[in-house]
Amino acid sequence: MKTSLVRICLSVMLTAIVVIAADTEGHDQYHPSLPKKLSLPEAKKIALQGNPSLQITVARLQAAAAQLQQAQSNYMPTLDLSASVQRTQEVPKQNGGNGRSHFTTYNAGASLDWTLYDGMARKYDNIAKRAGLKIAESNHLDAQRSLLLSVATAYYDTLLEVENIRIAKEDLKYNLDLQETAQKKLERGAGNRSDVLNFQIKAKGAQANLIQAEQNLKICHYSLVQLLGYSPSEIPEGFELLPADDYTKDSTLPSIDECIAYAFEHRPDIVAQQDMIHRQSALVNYYDSDYQPQIDLFADYGLTRRKNPKFTHHDDSLVFGAQVRWNIFNGNKTRARVAEAYAGVLEARASLDALKQEIERQVANQHTATNEARTLADLKNETEKLAEETRDLVRTEYNIGRVTATRLNEAQTDLTNAQGARVKAIILYWQYRENLAATTGKIMETAK
Q1: Is the pLDDT of residue 1 over 70?
Q2: Which end of the chain is more exposed for a tag (fewer CB within 10 A), N or C?
Q3: DSSP of 76-112, one letter per residue?
Q4: Contacts (Cβ under 8 Å, ≥6 apart) of 46
Q5: pLDDT per residue over 313-327, tens digit each?
């Protein structure tokens, strides 16, 4: 006996270990570690799989599917089983008792009800629920669209801080080199102390900018990984993002009309609003079906016996038949419900027209802003080249004593500003591209 008990305990423990291991393995597959090097398409895919906010729309999608299943079940008959025990005390004499008699009655039975015709109410209820399911699906896709844009924005914000760190490091190194050169000139008697202090101050400023950019990078990392469904503690050592593509190799934009046409066909919120019209139209017919009669079949089979529940064929009874119900007047309630549903149709159509107008405005604005950002990026790119050439010329003139450190400071500051402006312009261009893709709905293809 003890041996069998030990075997059972060991078996249970082994089973528990296997289940826990399997659950842990499944969790790791669902929530893998972040890669050390992350591209934007990878970030989008990870966000679609791990962002917890999407579970809200998933739950609503499941609820809509359950509502459709409920509507479909109305086509089926309903079957109920019942049983009861009833105790009767002191039956009056006029009812066959003696005023002190008592007995127990046992009942058991089954009832069947089946609606054959209800004025097509079930049909239109199913159409409405199916449209509701499509709306939930489109809302889920629209939530994904918004999430992908948020991921892209956070991604490029992070790249901007990476570039700011690079610029600050280059500025720091440049001023440290100048400080060293000024110190050597001072030691040879060809320089002055003010130049050394000047470049030392500039180096300290570049170091401060570097610290600030590094702090901003950490904050951007936190924001990005949160969108991906991770916590800051899960950021791997050496985590970095792959740089953006060369914007000059990016293809030109389609026309505004082409972008608007694509948006009207692919935006999930437009699809959802169209299904909302279908849903409200089905509700009009659903409420209108109350004007029609309803035909039901019914059957009841029961067993009744006193004293004990040992039923025989002498205790049963069967009732079945058909019933027609037709409401003639209900205080115009049906007319009011139909009018309410039809008003919902008008509202849904007006909302669709308003949504299309808003999308046209958004697409036109984003299209214009993207083209302007491209032009601005080209301009800032040329400005940086000119500023770098100017800075190099001024440094050469400073080394031979033709200009002062103040002029060299100005040239270096102009270059640093030009570098920052170029980086911001390029990042802004890519962000506008993502905004335009989100506005048209094309951003959904970037995560495939």
Answers
A1: no
A2: N
A3: S-EEEEEEEEEEEES--GGGT--SS-EEEEEEEEEEE
A4: 34, 228, 229
A5: 888 899 999 999 999
CA distance 50 to 55: 9
Element (H, E) at 311: none
Report residue 2's pLDDT band, with 50, 70 and 90 as the boundaries.
Answer: very low
User: 320: which strand partners?
Assistant: 299
Order of strands, sheet of 78-89, starting from the edge strand that comes earlier in the sequence: 78-89, 102-117, 294-306, 316-325
d(CA 354, CA 340): 21
Q: At what angle do helices 121-187 and 405-440 cross, to 10 degrees?
A: 170
Classified as helix, coil or strand, 303 is: strand
pLDDT tens digits, residue range 394-420? Answer: 999 988 888 888 888 899 999 999 999
Closest CA to 44 of 157, 152, 158: 152
Mean pLDDT along residues 86-94 = 73
Rounded Cα distance, 5 and 421, in Å:
76
Pseudo-torsion of CA 73, 74, 76, 80, nearest 10°? 90
First-to-last C-alpha distance (Å) of the chain: 60
pTM, two decimals, is: 0.82
Task: Answer yes or no: is pLDDT of 447 > 70.
Answer: no
Q: What does the H/E/C string look like for 330-371? A: CCCHHHHHHHHHHHHHHHHHHHHHHHHHHHHHHHHHHHHHHH
Phi, psi of 90 (to 5 degrees): 50, 70
Separation CA 224–CA 55 (nearest Å): 18
CB atoms within 10 A of CB 131: 23
**Hey, what are 378's tokens?**
């080209």
The whole-number pLDDT of residue 93 equals 65
CA distance 227 to 447: 15
Domains of the chain: 36-76+119-293+331-447 (1.20.1600.10)
Backbone φ and ψ of 113, nearest 5°: -130, 135
CA dist 222 and 239 (Å) reads 12
Q: Above 90 in pLDDT, residue 90?
A: no
pLDDT for residue 405 = 85
pLDDT in tens, 355-366: 999 999 999 999
Residues in the chain, overall count: 448
Kindly state the DSSP code that residue 294 receives in the 8-state scheme: E
